[in-house]
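dude i think i finally got it to work??
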Amino acid sequence: MPKRSRAAKIPYGSTRTVHMPRTRRRDAQPIVLIVPERPTLTQRALRALGGWLWDTRRAWSPSGVALAALVAAALMHALFWWTAFVLAPAALLPFGWLAWAGVRRPADDRTVRRWRHTLAVLASAATAWAALAVCFGPLAGPLELIWFALAVTAQVLWLRTRRTTAATVPIEEIH
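look at this
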Protein backbone atom coordinates (compact mmCIF):
# COMPACT_ATOMS: atom_id res chain seq x y z
CA MET A 1 0.00 0.00 0.00
CA PRO A 2 1.54 3.32 -1.04
CA LYS A 3 2.12 5.82 1.71
CA ARG A 4 0.19 9.10 1.33
CA SER A 5 1.97 12.36 1.71
CA ARG A 6 0.83 14.69 4.51
CA ALA A 7 0.36 17.51 2.04
CA ALA A 8 -1.85 15.46 -0.27
CA LYS A 9 -5.14 17.07 -1.20
CA ILE A 10 -8.24 15.30 0.04
CA PRO A 11 -11.47 15.87 -1.89
CA TYR A 12 -14.44 17.44 -0.10
CA GLY A 13 -16.74 15.04 1.69
CA SER A 14 -14.25 12.17 1.85
CA THR A 15 -13.30 10.65 5.17
CA ARG A 16 -10.04 11.65 6.71
CA THR A 17 -8.07 8.99 8.49
CA VAL A 18 -5.48 9.99 11.02
CA HIS A 19 -3.02 7.37 12.23
CA MET A 20 -1.97 7.87 15.84
CA PRO A 21 0.97 6.04 17.38
CA ARG A 22 0.20 3.51 20.12
CA THR A 23 0.46 4.73 23.64
CA ARG A 24 3.21 2.92 25.51
CA ARG A 25 1.71 3.14 29.00
CA ARG A 26 -1.26 1.08 30.08
CA ASP A 27 -2.92 3.83 32.13
CA ALA A 28 -2.73 6.41 29.33
CA GLN A 29 -5.98 7.94 28.13
CA PRO A 30 -6.97 7.51 24.49
CA ILE A 31 -6.17 10.41 22.21
CA VAL A 32 -9.12 12.08 20.51
CA LEU A 33 -8.29 14.20 17.51
CA ILE A 34 -10.96 16.35 15.91
CA VAL A 35 -10.27 17.34 12.32
CA PRO A 36 -12.64 20.04 11.12
CA GLU A 37 -13.93 19.77 7.59
CA ARG A 38 -13.23 22.55 5.17
CA PRO A 39 -16.42 24.32 4.07
CA THR A 40 -17.56 23.76 0.52
CA LEU A 41 -17.80 26.59 -1.97
CA THR A 42 -21.58 26.71 -1.54
CA GLN A 43 -21.25 26.97 2.24
CA ARG A 44 -18.70 29.74 1.89
CA ALA A 45 -20.92 31.65 -0.55
CA LEU A 46 -23.96 31.29 1.71
CA ARG A 47 -21.95 32.45 4.72
CA ALA A 48 -20.73 35.49 2.77
CA LEU A 49 -24.27 36.29 1.61
CA GLY A 50 -25.62 35.90 5.14
CA GLY A 51 -22.91 38.16 6.53
CA TRP A 52 -23.61 40.79 3.90
CA LEU A 53 -27.36 40.65 4.59
CA TRP A 54 -26.71 40.94 8.32
CA ASP A 55 -24.41 43.93 7.84
CA THR A 56 -26.95 45.73 5.62
CA ARG A 57 -30.09 44.65 7.49
CA ARG A 58 -31.26 48.21 8.19
CA ALA A 59 -31.11 49.13 4.54
CA TRP A 60 -33.24 46.12 3.56
CA SER A 61 -35.89 46.45 6.29
CA PRO A 62 -38.72 47.64 3.94
CA SER A 63 -38.25 44.51 1.85
CA GLY A 64 -38.49 42.37 4.98
CA VAL A 65 -41.66 44.18 6.06
CA ALA A 66 -43.14 43.71 2.57
CA LEU A 67 -42.35 40.00 2.62
CA ALA A 68 -43.87 39.66 6.10
CA ALA A 69 -46.99 41.50 4.88
CA LEU A 70 -47.31 39.10 1.95
CA VAL A 71 -47.09 36.07 4.25
CA ALA A 72 -49.47 37.63 6.79
CA ALA A 73 -52.00 38.41 4.05
CA ALA A 74 -51.83 34.82 2.82
CA LEU A 75 -52.39 33.47 6.33
CA MET A 76 -55.23 35.88 7.00
CA HIS A 77 -56.81 34.96 3.66
CA ALA A 78 -56.73 31.31 4.65
CA LEU A 79 -57.87 31.74 8.26
CA PHE A 80 -59.67 35.06 8.76
CA TRP A 81 -60.96 36.20 5.36
CA TRP A 82 -63.61 38.40 7.00
CA THR A 83 -60.94 40.86 8.25
CA ALA A 84 -60.92 42.30 4.72
CA PHE A 85 -64.15 44.09 5.68
CA VAL A 86 -62.30 45.74 8.57
CA LEU A 87 -59.25 46.66 6.50
CA ALA A 88 -61.22 48.17 3.60
CA PRO A 89 -62.47 51.25 5.50
CA ALA A 90 -59.06 51.57 7.15
CA ALA A 91 -57.62 52.45 3.74
CA LEU A 92 -59.08 55.94 4.18
CA LEU A 93 -57.36 56.60 7.53
CA PRO A 94 -54.11 57.97 5.99
CA PHE A 95 -56.11 60.72 4.30
CA GLY A 96 -57.70 61.54 7.66
CA TRP A 97 -54.20 61.83 9.11
CA LEU A 98 -53.24 64.10 6.22
CA ALA A 99 -56.18 66.42 6.95
CA TRP A 100 -55.39 66.38 10.69
CA ALA A 101 -51.70 67.14 10.07
CA GLY A 102 -52.65 69.99 7.73
CA VAL A 103 -54.80 71.60 10.45
CA ARG A 104 -52.65 70.87 13.52
CA ARG A 105 -49.21 71.29 11.98
CA PRO A 106 -49.46 73.30 8.79
CA ALA A 107 -46.35 73.06 6.63
CA ASP A 108 -45.02 76.08 4.78
CA ASP A 109 -42.34 74.07 3.04
CA ARG A 110 -43.38 72.45 -0.23
CA THR A 111 -41.20 69.36 0.32
CA VAL A 112 -42.90 68.62 3.65
CA ARG A 113 -46.30 68.75 1.98
CA ARG A 114 -45.07 66.48 -0.84
CA TRP A 115 -43.70 63.94 1.64
CA ARG A 116 -46.96 63.97 3.60
CA HIS A 117 -49.01 63.43 0.46
CA THR A 118 -46.68 60.68 -0.75
CA LEU A 119 -46.80 58.86 2.57
CA ALA A 120 -50.60 59.16 2.76
CA VAL A 121 -51.04 57.77 -0.75
CA LEU A 122 -48.58 54.90 -0.14
CA ALA A 123 -50.13 54.00 3.22
CA SER A 124 -53.61 54.08 1.70
CA ALA A 125 -52.50 51.93 -1.24
CA ALA A 126 -50.79 49.45 1.10
CA THR A 127 -53.88 49.17 3.29
CA ALA A 128 -56.13 48.76 0.24
CA TRP A 129 -53.79 46.06 -1.09
CA ALA A 130 -53.92 44.31 2.29
CA ALA A 131 -57.74 44.38 2.26
CA LEU A 132 -57.90 42.99 -1.28
CA ALA A 133 -55.17 40.41 -0.57
CA VAL A 134 -56.99 39.16 2.50
CA CYS A 135 -60.27 38.96 0.59
CA PHE A 136 -59.07 37.39 -2.68
CA GLY A 137 -55.60 36.06 -1.83
CA PRO A 138 -52.26 37.87 -2.20
CA LEU A 139 -51.42 36.29 -5.55
CA ALA A 140 -54.81 36.76 -7.21
CA GLY A 141 -54.89 38.80 -10.40
CA PRO A 142 -52.76 41.95 -10.38
CA LEU A 143 -52.30 41.95 -6.59
CA GLU A 144 -48.84 40.41 -6.83
CA LEU A 145 -47.70 43.19 -9.17
CA ILE A 146 -49.22 45.82 -6.90
CA TRP A 147 -47.39 44.26 -3.95
CA PHE A 148 -44.12 44.28 -5.90
CA ALA A 149 -44.60 47.92 -6.95
CA LEU A 150 -45.36 48.98 -3.37
CA ALA A 151 -42.36 47.04 -2.03
CA VAL A 152 -39.97 48.56 -4.58
CA THR A 153 -41.36 52.05 -3.97
CA ALA A 154 -40.98 51.69 -0.20
CA GLN A 155 -37.44 50.37 -0.62
CA VAL A 156 -36.40 53.21 -2.92
CA LEU A 157 -37.93 55.86 -0.66
CA TRP A 158 -36.28 54.27 2.37
CA LEU A 159 -32.84 54.28 0.77
CA ARG A 160 -33.30 57.82 -0.57
CA THR A 161 -34.41 59.17 2.80
CA ARG A 162 -31.59 57.46 4.66
CA ARG A 163 -29.05 58.88 2.21
CA THR A 164 -30.36 62.46 2.44
CA THR A 165 -30.70 62.44 6.24
CA ALA A 166 -27.24 60.95 6.69
CA ALA A 167 -25.76 63.63 4.43
CA THR A 168 -27.41 66.52 6.28
CA VAL A 169 -26.43 65.50 9.80
CA PRO A 170 -23.55 67.75 10.91
CA ILE A 171 -20.35 66.14 12.09
CA GLU A 172 -19.51 66.92 15.71
CA GLU A 173 -16.12 68.37 16.39
CA ILE A 174 -13.99 66.87 19.14
CA HIS A 175 -12.18 69.45 21.23
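DSSP finds six helices and no strands in the chain.
im so relieved honestly
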